[in-house]
Design a protein that fits this description.
Structural class: alpha/beta
Number of strands: 21
Number of domains: 3
Number of helices: 10
């Protein structure tokens, strides 16, 4: 179902076609026609001076009893008997949100043996840990993890659930939101709360990173969001704290599962920007894709990773896996070296929290210098080779 075009009022001026962000309107025989890609956003209505467009009323289900939902939960993604760093980053953010709402922080742990995970979590500011232990949960599979999590959430009713936007987290969050029939905002870059309504304000890039959209779920609980690794700082690990652990029997059986894990092959990524302590990134100022070889050499010498701006990825100079920014990876390395990157807002949002930023650019007024710890005005193809030469001398390779 799409918007309704009132044919007798439409004069075929194309105003609605120009503003539709989804290309869901076209002109046929001098009249606007709505296509199946329409998602009822309503932008076209305001563009029509002749009131020839109407948005049909949606069938909105009754609001839930929101007062029965309290607490901020974090899904703890595990890798063997260790915790993925994004889950701990979310624990810190959950604590901030919970303090504003006057509620508790809880963690949801699901794996084959949760004892070490619980021990590690007890060193952070957490009030409760909910666990479901079962051999079925030894390795991640969508259906059993969604079954276990939905059981916990329906039983204890948190108002907010935060999940890391890893490949596992994205798959899990979509399945869980569908099962719970609630909303999900993906790849959030910041969050806040509207205390009066206890609404989670979830901000993420939209329309290719050109705008920042703040989304809230007013009628359903829990409010769910995924957040990229390195968006929030890692909280400090403190002394062991008393944490209430609630163990739940999920009654999961392997014979009831539709899939089996026959072999586990760890993924070997060529680029791991999220965990890199040093990143050397290049932009259009590198001139051509062949010049990225010198950045790769610098990154290798420093034991770091090679990054890139969206512009050079779009130009085909380097693979998307290297992209830093709102529509790429959000990173927080100790050292970020920006070579020939002007500093578009979308790129700065993905790296400005780096501990030390070194910027090299010909343009002294480039926005990248506004966030740089150290700045060099000059040609990257002159400066970077000199850096490489000096490093090799100091490392005894020359």
């Amino acid at each position: 179902m799409g918007v309704t075009i009132l044919v007798d009022k439409c004069i075929g001026c194309r105003a609605c076609i120009k503003v539709c962000p989804f290309g869901a309107l076209e002109l046929v025989n001098g009249k606007a026609v709505c296509l199946e890609s329409c998602n009822l956003c309503g932008i076209c209505v305001g563009s029509c001076k002749f009131e020839a467009i109407e948005v049909p009323e949606r069938d909105i289900s009754p609001a839930m009893d929101l007062e029965n939902y309290r607490g901020v939960w974090v899904f703890v993604q595990t890798e063997g008997d260790s915790i993925h760093h994004v889950s701990l980053e979310l624990v810190g953010e959950a604590r901030r949100l919970a303090d504003e709402l006057g509620t508790e922080v809880s963690c949801m742990v699901m794996n084959g043996g949760a004892e070490k995970i619980v021990e590690d979590l007890s060193h952070y500011e957490i009030n409760r840990i909910y666990t479901i232990e079962s051999p079925v949960l030894d390795r991640y599979r969508t259906i059993p993890f969604v079954q276990a999590a939905s059981l916990l959430i329906r039983s204890f009713r948190p108002e907010i659930v935060l999940i890391g936007a890893t490949s596992t987290g994205r798959d899990f969050a979509g399945g869980l939101a569908t099962e719970l029939k609630t909303g999900l905002t993906a790849d959030c870059t910041s969050m806040d709360v509207e205390v009066s309504t206890r609404s989670l304000l979830q901000t993420r890039p939209a329309f290719g990173g050109n705008i920042m959209a703040t989304i809230k779920s007013s009628r359903h609980r829990p409010q769910m969001a995924t957040v990229r690794p390195k968006v929030f700082p890692m909280p400090l690990k403190g002394e062991k704290r008393p944490v209430k652990v609630i163990k739940v029997n999920g009654n999961l059986s392997e014979k009831d599962q539709k899939t089996r894990i026959l072999e586990w092959i760890p993924l070997r990524e060529g680029v791991n920007l999220a965990d890199a302590n040093i990143i050397v990134s290049g932009g259009r100022g590198m001139g051509k894709h062949e010049n990225f070889a010198v950045l790769q050499e610098l990154a290798d010498l420093l034991g770091g990773a090679l990054g890139a701006s969206r512009a050079v990825v779009d130009a085909g100079w380097i693979d998307y896996s290297h992209q830093v920014g709102q529509t790429g990876r959000t990173v927080r390395p100790h050292i970020y070296i920006a070579c020939g990157i002007s500093g578009a807002v979308q790129h700065l949002a993905g790296m400005k929290t780096s501990d030390v930023i070194i910027a090299i650019n010909r343009d002294p007024s480039a926005p990248i210098f506004s966030v740089a710890t150290y700045g060099y005005v000059g040609d990257v193809m002159d400066i970077v080779p000199k850096m490489i030469n000096e490093l090799k001398i100091r490392m005894g390779r020359r």
